[in-house]
Amino acid sequence: MSLRSIVKKIALKMPFVVNKFIEGQKKSGRITTYEEHVQNLEMANVVLLNEPLKEINFTVGLVKDDIFRYDEKYLYKRSYFPKYERFLKNNKIQYEFYNILKSNWLEEAKKYDLIIWHTASDPSTQKIAKNKLYVLDKILKKTCLPSYDEIWGYEDKVNAHYFYKAHNLPEIPTFVSHDRQDVIAFLNQTTYPIISKLTTGSASFGVEKMNSKEEAMQLVNKVFSNKGLKTYFPFERQKDYVYFQQFIADATFDLRIITIGNKALGYYRYPNKGDFRASGAGNYEKKEIPAAALDLAFQVKELYGATCLATDLLYSEKNKQYYIIESSIFIGVDTPKQLEIDGVAGYYERTAKGEYQFKEGKYWIQELTLMEIFKDKFLK
């Protein structure tokens, strides 16, 4: 831990420092009260079940995410459990808050018919989630959002690469290896620049462009050292693996497509001037999405077996092809307008013939996701 981190940790134990920190977080808009957050959710259409539940005493265990630990009356603006909670309340479904991190998590889980946990994306939480969801899903046979199969590839680019390659999906040409000599052989014959990524990282964190073999070897030497390479996670190092992708020079945007059941939403993302990374840049455009891109996103979701999956694509004008960057079961969501056409919010509905029809409406994707789970498993 750095000296700065130690000083901050000590300072935040002092009441006047904590109060000042909270005020700063409120002014920046990063935190909000639960009541304010819930009120903000009402800008979206209500999602209602059209059939009754099979079980009378059906109960959901809902895990709280993104709680502001310095004052319990606040939560982070991007907290997601209230979106799931809104669906449960509107449909009069019984639920309890479930602390999956406590020592009694296994005993408590037995009373729930459905467990909802919008996990954080850091490596520590993902390790906890994979271990516990394996037990809940595979051993106790609980219905979980996410399932173990869904969490297996979440925030793990290496696992996602194995998945794309096994299914012959058109991902960006990618090289993954845990063997140093194999990596050096690749660097001797590849074309530069190449893109290096951490297996876990979002919003373009841990993404670097290697312009030469010399640059790449500096990274390789650290990765395959005894300590590994320091990452932006203070507790995590890149150790004994590389993840390299070909640089698609003629790609001018990312296209994120969110597929839920037979619905699709999405938007375009553009990099800042002089940069190649669109994710995290904050430059969005919402407009029509080509059918070929929608088809690919649905193909990935169906193979993945996910209820909701966001797939990020690049388009190469030279090759006339969409390439998969990565997929994620959870994404950052600030608005119920994840797709707009000519300023009108809505979603694409995929017909039985594979055609796409635009339907108007503002929806939280978390509620649409729960609708699919209930339709598939719990309705009469």
Explain what the structure shows.
- This protein is an alpha+beta fold and 380 residues long.
- The protein folds into three domains: 3-118, no CATH class; 173-246, Dna Ligase, domain 1 (2-Layer Sandwich), CATH 3.30.1490; 254-378, D-amino Acid Aminotransferase, Chain A, domain 1, CATH 3.30.470.
- The protein has twelve helices and 20 strands.
- The chain has helices at 3-11, 15-28, 34-41, 81-90, 105-109, 123-139, 148-152, 157-166, 180-189, 213-223, 291-304, 365-377; strands at 31-33, 59-62, 74-76, 94-97, 114-116, 143-145, 174-177, 194-197, 207-210, 229-230, 237-238, 242-246, 254-260, 263-270, 283-285, 308-316, 321-328, 340-341, 344-350, 356-360.
- The strands form five sheets. Strands 13, 14, 15, 16, 17, 18, 19 and 20 form an eight-stranded antiparallel beta sheet that branches.
- A hairpin with a 2-residue loop joins strand 18 and strand 19.
- Helix 4 packs across helix 12 (365-377) and helix 9 packs antiparallel against helix 10 (213-223).
- The termini are far apart.
- The model has no long low-confidence stretch (mean pLDDT 91).
Low-confidence stretches: none
CATH class of the largest domain: Alpha Beta
What CATH architecture of the largest domain do you see? 2-Layer Sandwich
Helix proportion range: 25-40%
Radius of gyration: 22 Å
Structural class: alpha+beta
Chain-averaged pLDDT:
91
Largest sheet: 8 strands, antiparallel
